[in-house]
Amino acid sequence: MSHYKSNMRDIEFNLFEVLDRQEILGTGPFEEVDLDTARTILAEVDRMAREDLASSYGEGDRNPPSFDAAAGTADLPESFKKSYRAWMDSEFYRLWIPREIGGQPAPATLNWAIAELVLGANAPVWMYASSPGFASIVFRNGNHRDKRIAELMIEKEWGSTMVLTEPDAGSDVGAGRARATPNPDGSWNIEGVKRFITSAEHDMSENIIHLVLARPVGVEGVGGPGTKGLSLYIVPKLHFDHQTGELTGERNGVHVTNVEKKMGIKVSNTCEVTFGPDSNDAGEPARGWLLGEVHDGIAQMFQVIESARMMVGTKAIATLSTGYLNALAFARSRVQGPDLTRASDKTAPRVTITHHPDVRRSLLTQKSHAEALRALVLYTASWQDRVMIAEHQEVQDELAERVNDLLLPIVKGYGSERSWVLLGTESLQTLGGSGYLQDYPIEQYVRDAKIDTLYEGTTAIQGQDLFFRKIVKDQARALGHLAGEIDSFVTSEAGNGRLKVERALLATALGDGNAIVAAMVGQLMSADPAGGEGNHIRNVYKVGLNTTRLLMALGDIVCAWLLLRQAEVALTKLAGEVSAEDKDFYEGKVAAAQFFARTVLPKVAAERQIAEAVDLSVMDLPETAF
Ligand code: ST9
Fold first, then answer.
1. In 107-165, at which residue ranges do the beta strands (DSSP E only) sit?
2. Probe ligand 1: pick from 166, 173, 307, 387, max atoms within 8 Å of CB?
3. Which of 298, 303, 380 for a ligand 1 pocket mutation test, highest count of atoms within 8 Å of Cβ?
4. Cα angle vertex 623, ends 620, 626, to 5°?
5. Using CA atoms, how far apart are residues 506 and 565, in angstroms rounded to an integer?
């Protein structure tokens, strides 16, 4: 039986009952993907995810690739390769990529819905298969040569990687020391050691294209300190003819020098990669080509990172969702103890654990969060749809870009934190001691989901990104828009009287969220010594003590709003004729929204108090006192 339990009903509810994606399917840039096609694709990906992709999930964990240092290889289990092949052969990746390189673009909402199914079933399949996405970035930013390379990456199904991190440059990408020196033929020699490089070695494609950040040296005007001095290079594992794609038989000086042993997603090879000759100056140089012949590496790499952060958030919620549905299936059949009302009666019949209040609390906690986070991913994607439509019309939808940017750290940071914690504290816990066994998939889910709070920018980085870049630098334009939308919901009559209490709770939480932002802006301004007496640069620490708090509080508020919007839709449906199955579904939507509003939102007030009262005592504590 498949470990993966998808929630197609909720995915379709989001797409077609809340976000009304049927209005854009089959139109504009999505001309070739109409509603029927979208539904057929979703059904097929769902089947494939539960069967072909999920089938190798456990095997990849129990028998992960092992690194052969002499050969520099880390071959994947056959079962995993079969899952990967099934996904690649479906060619659904073409829905992501531009027409010019063989794509058939679909709305981002449809693509992220598909992504959820694949990521929930077997996330490393998606990660190894993201090369067409990388090719899109190469195509978008590249010159004539690079555009051809992008085509070849897709035609030949080569693998790809994003290469930023170094042993001493993780969150601080700008501290990277890898260097690039120009050659007379227009190529560059790359030298340095990179770490934590996903998919840098495997036996599923004949070549791998690395997109490498390195600092150009010896060229006037480029290559300064920090991230802005980094350029992005296309560095192949094996050299090839840039026109035909034929491998020249020449090995490039790019060598995997270690594959990490990890807590989870073990089948996803996480590699140390050494570029250029070794410390004895032996070996071939690692030659690469500057992407687009412009020194704009960090901005180019962030095009990849933005997509990857969305991917990580989607992976996290996909895992929470299947974790919840596995816990629910267990709870429905597990008989244990009497009903609490008959606890003192030793002869009382034993009941399934779904009768116990604390199990119900736990299940609704899981359900409401999984569905809230799915709503968050797909709502964010709906702004990406707007960006795509505008680009197709050759205009810019600045608001859509800004709101998408604002939501990304919430999807990634809030989504991954809530998912990994709830998988452990609630989903696994529902199974009692059995949850700790490999007989059930949840212990693997917990291990596999932990990484989501770490890679592609830790939660701390997401919190800083949210406040400094997406709120302060944006002058709160996107935040103002979103807060305005939430405000109109709370002041509306949404829910026909049944959501009155919840709208009031949301109004209070929105006020508290705004107050946290205001407090942090005040703290930031007081850190400007030019601002006058009482101002001190150290006050910026107060902001830093609050950034993760703000990330989580805004996540709670936005998620509550999205769930309540869904409850409003559900209540409207319930007022008409619905099947028994739909009645249960819609009642479940209303219950999840009410539960989330009543149990999560009141906590935002406490976060506000803490944020406003933050002082410098934590920073004043001598390190030796920790
Ligand atoms: C990793 C791999 O963890 C994990 C698994 C990968 C799985 C791969 C498979 C999936 C891939 C999907 C690929 C598909 C592709 C696409 C498909 C499309 C169809 N937003 O604030 P400043 C830029 S890899 C946008 O001064 P610092 C911006 O250009 C490791 N841009 O930063 C900015 O200039 P300006 C992941 C942003 O203080 C410039 O950076 N590692 C954003 O110099 C400088 O900004 C990390 O994620 C943004 N949010 O550096 C690193 N932020 O201001 C985490 C910055 O002029 N660390 N830029 O616009 C950070 O993010 C740091 O905050 C820092 C700080 C490095 C940015």
1. 159-163
2. 173
3. 298
4. 100
5. 12
Tokens representing 473? 């630098």
Better pLDDT: 279 or 598: 598
Taking a C-beta distance cutoff of 8 angstroms, is the pair 109, 378 a contact?
yes
**Burial environment of residue 104 by CB neighbours within 10 A (0 to 12, 13 to 18, 19 or more):** middle
State whether the beta carbon of 38 lies less than 6 angstroms from ligand 1.
Answer: no
pLDDT in tens, 39-98: 999 999 999 999 999 999 999 999 999 999 999 999 999 999 999 999 999 999 999 999
- Is 198 near ligand 1, meaning CB less than 6 Å away? yes
411 CA from centroid of ligand 1 (Å)? 15
* Buried b or exposed e, range 280-308, using 16+ CB within 10 angstroms: eeeeebbbbbbbbeebbbbebbebbbbbb
In angstroms, the CA 70 to CA 73 distance is: 8
Which of 411, 412, 391 has the alpha carbon at shortest distance from 400? Answer: 391
At residue 308's C-alpha, the angle toward residues 553 and 317, to 5°, is 50
* Residue 213 Cβ < 6 Å to ligand 1: no
pLDDT at 532: 82
Tokens of 205: 């494609």
Distances (CA, A) of 280 to 72, 275, 277, 283, 284: 18, 13, 7, 9, 12
- Would the pTM count as exceeding 0.90? yes
Segments of the chain assigned to CATH 2.40.110.20:
157-295
Contact 599, 527 (CB under 8 A): no
* Amino acid identity at 413: G
CATH 1.10.540.10 domain range(s) in the chain:
8-134
The structure tokens listed for 588 are 């479940």
Q: Do residues 209 and 245 touch, judged by C-beta distance below 8 A? A: no
Note the pLDDT tens digit of each residue in 138-160.
Answer: 999 999 999 999 999 999 999 99
Q: Which atom of ligand 1 lies nearest, measured to the CA of 96?
A: 19
| Closest by Cα among 2, 25, 30 to 391 | 30
Per DSSP, the three-state class of 238 is strand
Separation of CA 141 and ligand 1 centre (Å) = 16
Report whether 615 contacts 542 (CB < 8 A): yes
**Residue 132 Cβ < 6 Å to ligand 1:** no
CATH 2.40.110.20: does it fit domain 157-295?
yes
Longest C-alpha distance within the chain, in Å?
88
The band of 399, judged by pLDDT with boundaries at 50, 70 and 90, is: very high
Report pLDDT for 130: 97
| Gap from CA of 301 to ligand 1 centroid (Å) | 6
**Ligand 1 touching residue 473 (CB < 6 A):** no
CA–centroid distance, residue 384 to ligand 1 (Å)? 18
> Is 456 marked active-site?
yes
Domain 8-134 belongs to what topology? Butyryl-Coa Dehydrogenase, subunit A; domain 1 (1.10.540)
- Distance spanning both ends of the chain, measured CA to CA: 49
Active site residue: 456, 502, 568, 607, which one? 456
